[in-house]
Amino acid sequence: MNLVHLSAHFPRHYALFTQRLAEHGVKVFGVTDQPDEALPDDLRRALTGHYRVDRLDDTGQVLQACRHFRDHWGRIDRVESHLEPWIELEAAVREAFDIPGLRPGDLQFMKRKSLMKQVFARAKVPTARGVLVGTFGQCRDFIRGRFPAFIKPDSGVGAGDTYTIRSEDDLRDFFAKKGDYPYFLEEYLEGVIESFDGLTDREGELAFCTGHVFNNDIHKIVKLNQNLNYYNFRQVPADLERLGRAVVGAAGIREKFFHIEFYRQPDGQLRGLEINMRPPGGLTTHMFNYSSDIDVYDWWAAVVAQGRREFTYERRYHCAYVGRKNDREYRHSHDDIVRRCGPGLVHHQPMNPIEYPVMGHVAYLVRSPDEGEVRDMIAYIQQEAV
User: Fold this and answer.
1) Rounded CA separation 111/116 (Å)
2) Is the pLDDT of residue 160 over 70?
3) What is the tens place of the pLDDT at every residue in 178-198?
4) What pLDDT was estimated at residue 108?
5) CA atoms in the 13 A half-sphere facing the CB of 141
6) Which of these, 144, 140, 142, 120, lies nearest to 131 by C-alpha position?
7) What does the pLDDT average to over 73-96?
8) Parallel, antiparallel, or unpaired: how do β-strands 149-153 and 49-52 relate?
9) Cα 303 from Cα 298, distance rounded (Å)
10) Distances (CA, A) of 331 to 377, 382, 383
11) Domains along the chain?
């Protein structure tokens, strides 16, 4: 089997996907914007071939790289990046080389919030009321004085160009600076973000699943410049797993990681928020491993190479991501954290600059079978100096 890994070098720990594929006998060809000598040794050793492009967002160059691999090593069987920015690029490569998986026409529901609502509806998952808007009058007719409301581009990801509208003055300000493309206006939901995450096999059956609870949504983390933390459930709430599985089926997710977000409202009900066909961001794939003492990089490689393999696991720990931003003083130093958390601190590292606004500058992963202990470690790490 020949697989093209787009952006094989970034983020750094995703090199583990390439290494595990190679261990399963898959020939992996990397496409990056880095010279050979800049690639980590472990990644370079695992790659069968590497092609440097000037820019990964230049589809023509990436297609040329794939033609090079095909002409020298034969048919390309799979292409993968595991990254949101390159989902469309993956689909373009599949279309050009007749590779199984999502094609450009399959991605509309992932790109457009209005179409994503339809997938949630097929899964019988309630969502916030919403409407495509282009004029001030359309927005006012939808809101009808019921502020706040939330508006974002119909196509796009992340927290950029999103706004909370709390008054007609806010709405006027928005229209004075908005982009020249459709926006999606929704009722404003209060609640806690919970996610259903995992991996499907070639037939769309779940090979692994878990759930996480977040201290805030990405929009607020960025806008309010907060520190992010989240951790996995040891026992996924029954309604979260039931609705999550329904969305996986309705979206037709196969041989892919997934990250599906919900709002847990004050009344306890869940509302669907977002569907992603990729691993959760940051270091969450490491968290999968630390929560269950598994190797999800190997499991994904086995799914790709073999189609289906039975995996067994038990969520022995709550594993938390704890981010710290460098623009504030903290009560406890790194050495304090190491002493306080002891063996509960399983990983720490600096994050990539592109991730700072959400994930923070430094990340700590902590785990414990006890949820209270994990929450205590989160509070200790993020406690700011008075």
Assistant:
1) 8
2) no
3) 999 999 999 998 899 999 999
4) 84
5) 8
6) 142
7) 96
8) unpaired
9) 9
10) 13, 8, 6
11) 2-106 (3.40.50.20), 129-187 (3.30.1490.20), 192-382 (3.30.470.20)
Q: Which amino acid is at 143?
A: I
Separation between Cα atoms, residue 377 and residue 372, nearest integer Å: 9
Read off the tokens for 111. Answer: 């790109």
